[in-house]
Amino acid sequence: xxxxxxxxxxxxxxxxxxxxxxxxxxxxxxxxxxxxxxxxxxxxxxxxxxxxxxxxxxxxxxxxxxxxxxxxxxxxxxxxxxxxxxxxxxxxxxxxxxxxxxxxxxxxxxxxxxxxxxxxxxxxxxxxxxxxxxxxxxxxxxxxxxxxxxxxxxxxxxxxxxxxxxxxxxxxxxxxxxxxxxxxxxxxxxxxxxxxxxxxxxxxxxxxxxxxxxxxxxxxxxxxxxxxxxxxxxxxxxxxxxxxxxxxxxxxxxxxxxxxx
Length: 261
Hints:
By secondary structure, the chain is of the alpha/beta class. The chain is built from ten helices and eight strands. It has an eight-stranded mixed beta sheet with strand order 1-2-4-3-5-6-7-8, with helices on both faces. Strand 1 (3-10) and strand 2 (13-20) form a beta hairpin.
């Protein structure tokens, strides 16, 4: 599957991006929103596999401070995911996306919820559906414990070396995410208020061995959204369903995409 690499400007920053598959004018676009330590390249072959499975174009980009996008100014505000949700329409306009299915992982799933639950964002670029991989809508004890372990692995283990392959400013990417989540005030972070405004179909893919969150996140989303809801719980999978159970995750997103075409 052919991939086109390019840069765009949105929210006042230069962002790296890639497009795989059909152009936006032909059909709905799958928009990939990466996790808190992710970027365009960290998705690896998942965008190409998703384009091949669905027949849709896939747009993927690195948010401010990640990958080869502009470096972030630290510290990140505790509402950084709210901010990214607000800037997403600017990103989609710059990329030429006309209507979208948002595929978000972890932080990216939270950003998708904020965007889809905010009237200006919905009205700007129609959001046809959401596929949420290991989403967060509030801060749990398990989230904090997992992020504390990530800090230890970054300082004392091999995590920094692994992440340095993907990020030009690896310390900015890591500490911007880690220190925000471990700030005591972040315990009050909550985006459940955006859920009742979401009428588009929602798919949640969650591993039951997720080291950063529990099924309480899935339950909260199902209770509050107003559109069709599907849960896909993966036995033994951790925080990255698309890596731990790629075939099941691809099939679930492909079914979602087919349902709105």
